[in-house]
Amino acid sequence: MLATKVFRSAQPLRSNVRRYASPPGPASTGSSNNAIYALLVGAGVLGGGFYYYRITEPKPEAHAPASADERKTVPEPEAHAPSSADERKTVPSSPAPSASAPQKAFRGGDQGFVDLKLESVEEINHNTKKFRFALPNSDDVSGLSIASALLTKYKGPEMEKPVIRPYTPTSDEDAKGYLDFVIKVYPNGPMSEHLHAMKPDQRLDFKGPIPKYPWEANKHDHIALIAGGTGITPMYQLARAIFKNPADRTKVTLVFGNLTEADILLKPEFEDLENTYPNRFRAFYVLDRPPEGWAQGKGHITAELLKTVLPEPREENVKIFVCGPPGLYKAVSGAKKSVAEQGELTGMLKELGYRQDQVYKF
Question: Residue 184 annotated as binding?
């Protein structure tokens, strides 16, 4: 009886959310989202422990084979999972640029690692910093495509082998002269600890680009981004590129889970997108430990929340992207099987009727 009432109360809400691309009413976007969450809470959609965003179970990044001593350390979570076989196809070196085209700092192929100077460090919160690295020349661009990442490499004096981690820049691909990264430090994470200890004018090795999901304008009618923690960076890269291109009319829905409000990375950037494109972008935030008066999601992401806010699986040209800690993958989509394979689709998305080809795991 209670389940029936909950389901019925969620029905009109789901209809309203999925029609958000229609012209907005007089209420602001934030107020609209808050009203949606109020109904979700009343229907019992949100709640429970936010178990899969806790730092106690970070996702390990791809790295070089470790020695016996190195394997004793706790693996460091990545911003995204390693590339599949198709994604790891060799990136050909770019042809020599024309007089009007900017030089690409990263050209793939056999270029090897490029050491960049740390230009500045900005503290974001208690465990996250923004790092700006200068490209070799002031008029260089990164050379990254959408979506792609860079590898970082560091070998400490006590290390037998270097540690290698992939990170997705948060700066625009057309930005000249620099790269920005937003990186959280994790206990016993050798790369993130090294980065957080770096000072301006020190240098770090980078290599790439490492291609992930190839994007082109209007490739899908509607995409959903389900992220946790630092898994937000490849999602931001994709969303930023979509809304930067006037020819791209893709609709985007973000579901982003964190421990506290301070852990919501890139929130001002996403709020700017939501205010600028209210008919095409909506963001839903869920917190394990929300502050007093928090009007959005509380607890953890549930299947009912996803059913309410995501595009329906029967819509043919939709794509769901997932990125975050291991627990998020397990609950939402299932983990990648290996470096080369996406792995079987399981979890909430499978239960909700999405097909394997409708889901991509970063």
Answer: yes
pLDDT at 339 over 90: no
233 annotated among ligand-binding-site residues? yes
pLDDT tens-digit profile of 206-265?
999 999 999 999 999 999 999 999 999 999 999 999 999 999 999 999 999 999 999 999
What would the two tokens of residue 229 be? 């923690």
Q: pTM for this one?
A: 0.77
Task: Give the closest residue to 286 by CA, choosing from 56, 49, 126.
Answer: 49
pLDDT of residue 28: 45
Structure tokens at 271: 């709020």
152 marked as binding residue: no
- Residue 215 has which token pair? 């994007």
The reply, when asked if residue 192 is annotated as ligand binding, is yes
Query: Would you say 165 is a known binding-site residue?
Result: yes
Q: Say if residue 182 carries a ligand binding annotation.
A: yes
Q: Is 267 annotated as a binding residue?
A: no
Consult the annotation and say whether 361 binds a ligand.
no
